[in-house]
Q: What sequence folds into this?
């Protein structure tokens, strides 16, 4: 049965060889688990057997270390697929694995850095002499000041920034646009870049100063995501920041610092361009940790 199912996945479904190999390993462990429980045929399997297998995966044994939620979920998907395949082939009367849900992976909390490290990062980016320093500072100010994704920031056109209204138009996932306020620090940095740096960069390319992308590279072309990553990485090294820093770190910091300052989660949702507030609520977990830390260190009866 297992061999037939794996052949079906390879031939009919076209799954990758590595996936088939992983499923084979998972199902071999499953059939061994069933055999040890005295179950010799899929028609004898009960839902409790499938649930028991999942529990065994998470607990581990003398031969196997405990599996992570992600690895255990993959194994459960393989087992559920096997039982569904057997049902469709008429080999079992029902699908006993249908209600056994794979474990949800642990939610990875977004990594934010303190405000003082953000400031150090921006200052380090702007410490380069010439047009590049002004550009790099403006880029990081925009990333942190608007919570923009890196693709949104490097995709900005000059006309997307309305300096009179202090807002920027960002094109998010699926081309969905949103208007986000821009703070005075970012506006000032962009103004300096536009006046003192971008004209020099633009002369190296074909585009005029008034049109095209906001952020240009040294050849006058559009700044790429890879170059933006390199700018941030170099600034972090120059600032002596040892934590891992990525463009998304500034987006995470933007959201976390807003919530720490009392912003409503739905406002932050709109600013980030999240389709659902559920996506944004992961940041509230970070904020609760901060509140708990302050409470523990400040309240006279918080600790025994």
A:
């Amino acid at each position: 049965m297992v061999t037939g199912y794996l052949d079906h996945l390879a031939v009919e479904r076209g799954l990758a060889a590595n996936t088939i190999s992983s499923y084979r390993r998972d199902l071999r462990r499953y059939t061994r688990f069933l055999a040890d429980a005295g179950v010799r045929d899929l028609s004898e399997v009960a839902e409790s057997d499938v649930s028991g297998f999942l529990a065994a995966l998470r607990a581990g044994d003398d031969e196997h270390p405990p599996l992570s939620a992600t690895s255990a979920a993959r194994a459960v998907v393989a087992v559920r697929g096997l039982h569904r395949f057997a049902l469709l082939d008429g080999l079992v009367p029902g699908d006993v694995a249908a209600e056994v849900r794979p474990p949800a992976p642990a939610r990875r909390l977004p990594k934010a850095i303190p405000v003082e490290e953000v400031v150090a990062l921006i200052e380090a980016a702007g410490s380069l002499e010439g047009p590049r320093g002004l550009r790099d500072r403006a880029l990081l100010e925009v990333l942190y000041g608007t919570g923009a994704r890196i693709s949104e920031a490097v995709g900005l056109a000059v006309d997307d920034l309305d300096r009179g209204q202090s807002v920027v138009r960002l094109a998010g996932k699926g081309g969905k646009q949103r208007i986000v306020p821009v703070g005075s620090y970012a506006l000032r940095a962009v103004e300096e870049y536009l006046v003192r740096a971008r004209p020099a960069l633009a002369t190296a390319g074909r585009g005029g100063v008034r049109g095209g992308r906001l952020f240009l590279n040294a050849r006058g072309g559009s700044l790429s995501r890879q170059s933006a990553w390199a700018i941030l990485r170099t600034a972090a090294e120059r600032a002596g920041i040892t934590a891992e820093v990525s463009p998304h770190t500034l987006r995470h910091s933007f959201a976390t610092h807003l919530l720490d300052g009392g912003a409503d989660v739905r406002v932050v949702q709109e600013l980030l361009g999240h389709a659902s507030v559920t996506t944004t609520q992961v940041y509230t977990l970070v904020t609760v940790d901060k509140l708990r830390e302050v409470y523990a260190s400040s309240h006279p009866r918080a600790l025994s």
